[in-house]
Design a protein that fits this description.
Layout lengths: L16 E2 L2 H9 L8 E5 L5 H6 L5 E5 L6 H4 L7 E4 L8 H4 L8 E6 L5 H10 L6 E7 H7 L10 H9 E9 L4 E2 L6 E8 L8 H11 L7 H4 L5 H10 L13 H10 L2
Parallel strand pairs: 2-3, 2-5, 3-4, 5-6
Antiparallel strand pairs: 1-8, 6-9, 7-9
Helix pairs in contact: 7-8, 10-11
Length: about 260
């Protein structure tokens, strides 16, 4: 069964509206939300998912950049649901939720694919103490976010996200579930707050992984020419790697060990 509404999607905003009620139900079932929690929805569009999320009876704040969608969204507002017509990247979420009492924070949304990473980084850097995030993203982006070492999709963004969250790909979504139909396949990806983050200087760690993957086909040694590679070699040898290893072969444990050994 599909949810059909007439609206002109704006290509400039990366709009592709989810119209499949079965997918919406699967998203709903993937969120273990209680009435005392807070949900933030990014890009509610015509309100198809929003309407379903309201059944959780939790506080709900939705950020929508397109004012033309007020005709669909305004009637969804009530004592526990608020629609904010603003670009999420220009919002002050902490200020917007400061008067709401809640237990856990959930963030969901069908993100514009061209700024998916920018939005997720913005949310992380907003220091919101997010318990869970659940997003519709491009399928190949989901593969990159959840990649394991020695896979072609494994990169610095994988390690960055996995520092904060346990990340998993829940299920794929056919492009036929959207209106208009996009050119790519999609997937639902889930981020659950990690309670065992490495005890390291995260700025030094993020700099190391960014530098390590700067030129992906280069060896770690060639990418880290400005580091004390003798100290790095000590760690590599400990894990049975030689100095010609590439960053994509190393897991988080090795990178954490390298950062600690560089002190």
């Amino acid at each position: 069964m599909a949810i059909i509404k007439n609206v002109n999607a704006k290509k400039s905003l990366g709009q592709n509206f989810l119209i499949d009620s079965n997918v919406i139900q699967k998203i709903y079932d993937s969120l273990d939300v209680n009435p005392n929690d807070l949900i933030i929805e990014i890009g509610p569009g015509m309100g198809s998912l929003t309407t379903k999320l309201k059944e959780k009876k939790a506080n709900l704040i939705c950020y929508e950049i397109d004012n033309d969608l007020k005709i669909y969204l305004n009637n969804l507002e009530d004592a526990k649901t608020k629609i904010i017509y603003q670009d999420i990247l220009k919002s002050n979420i902490k200020d917007d939720i400061k008067n709401i009492k809640y237990d856990k924070l959930y963030i969901v949304g069908n993100l514009p694919y061209y700024i998916t990473t920018a939005i997720i980084k913005y949310l992380i850097n907003s220091n919101l103490n997010i318990f869970t995030m659940l997003f519709m993203v491009q399928d190949e982006v989901a593969d990159r976010f959840t990649a394991k070492p020695k896979c072609k999709d494994y990169s610095s963004i994988t390690l960055f996200l996995n520092y904060y969250f346990n990340v998993s790909k829940l299920f794929s979504v056919s492009k036929k579930c959207f209106k208009p139909i996009p050119k790519v396949e999609s997937a639902i990806i889930k981020f659950i707050q990690r309670d065992n983050k490495p005890n390291i200087n995260k700025e030094e760690y993020f700099k190391l992984i960014n530098d390590s993957f700067k030129m992906k086909r280069k060896t770690l040694k060639n990418n880290l020419i400005n580091y004390d590679f003798n100290k790095i070699k000590e760690v590599l040898y400990k894990y049975n790697f030689d100095e010609n290893v590439r960053a994509e072969e190393l897991n988080e444990k090795v990178f954490v060990d390298i950062v600690n050994n560089l002190k």
